[in-house]
Amino acid sequence: MRYYFNIGTNLGDRHQNVGRAIAALCALGTRCRVSKPMESEPWGFDSANRFLNVGVALDLDLPPHEVLDCVHDIERRLGSAAHRHADGSYADRLVDIDIMAIDDPHGQPVDINTPTLTVPHPHLHDRDFFLLPYQQLKHLLD
Length: 142
Prior knowledge:
By secondary structure, the protein is an alpha+beta fold. The chain has one domain: 2-Layer Sandwich (Alpha-Beta Plaits), CATH 3.30.70.560. 29% of the residues lie in helices and 26% in strands. It is built from 3 helices and 7 strands, in the order E-H-E-E-E-H-E-E-E-H. Strands 1, 2, 3, 4 and 5 form a 5-stranded antiparallel beta sheet that branches. Strands 6-7 form a two-stranded antiparallel ribbon. The chain is globular, with a radius of gyration of 14 Å.
């Protein structure tokens, strides 16, 4: 299956954070493609730190919930704490990796709606820092 990820960071050396996250993701599968990086304002909270975002497309032979576990493991290994405060509000973060979308082996979109995973990402089409890298990756792979 082809997975589309978004990596975001707004703390520390953002380019290094993104590079380390890309390397960790790409080590999981094959045919890794990366979008152009883009900067964005924090979404859902105030911060003086702008985000650096990049999209990654990757072919993986793992089921979605196992991929989600791998993503959480990568975030932890790279030193990223939870991206929400105890009250549920968003916080600055070293690395945040989201699964934006998944295509099945025939190129058809996969829909998942469980308590732990929703695909496509519920905000894929209304956040430019998701949508623009995703569209770029789809164009590269068509």
